[in-house]
């Protein structure tokens, strides 16, 4: 396993500057990360976008769109016809893609809502967007008491007897910690998805070399095609901060801007990204180990029994302010109107939701 790749910069001014790297990356040890935007905000509930065999479907789609689009961009009309979806759904695809794209300079990102069709989407960004529509988000871990999962609050189950031994606040923290995936869990899940599907993703961007036959060995990626991977991955927690993704790759770094970079075999790109994903997953695993084995935090310590009453209601000092119900659980329920003070009720620290009800 190799160490995470560091971005390199041109050293043409090294003769004038004693520092051999005059523009170092502020975070020299950068790990690869999935971009959260497409995975968390780019998935659409349109059944026809969920493709069971993405490469067999999207590669012909890409070729058709490229042959019909001299500028390598596609509008909602062409997208609607190609995917056999409604025009409104096609517009929604373009609008959503614009909101999660990685490049602020892309015409689709800069266009206003009424100009989206005239700007169109880059076909290579579009096929990556369509590919990840089959991504399944990490779900909360199911509870050992399956009956309690099927219950509708505030009904009771055999599990409630155990919950009553905990304070409402402890219940919330326990549920949140044990069953809701953390951001780190989500990141590891997204990295694992990319690890599994990387070969297919690269096949959507790569192009064959003439005279080299067919198959993976004949596929290459130009630097321009490689940059489209920035839609799915980035280096550093906050992204590349203006540094092109290609400058993190040893096979494209320091390329002469006045000359096109030599295309790189797709297998080489595949191996390099897999090494970086493996390093990132190992880092996540090492970072999570101390948290799992460490002592419990002060917030998990027991509280006074007076605060552990599951039907505890804390009213605002002001008679006109909201009534706060803190740490509500299945066994916490206000039954009397006289328990409420003021015109509204606010439920705080609820495991499932936080809502304000007007009375």
UniProtKB/TrEMBL annotation:
Span list, region Disordered: 1-34
Biased composition (Low complexity): 7-18
InterPro entries the record matches: TBCC1
PANTHER family reported in the protein's UniProt record: TBCC DOMAIN-CONTAINING PROTEIN 1
Protein name: Uncharacterized protein
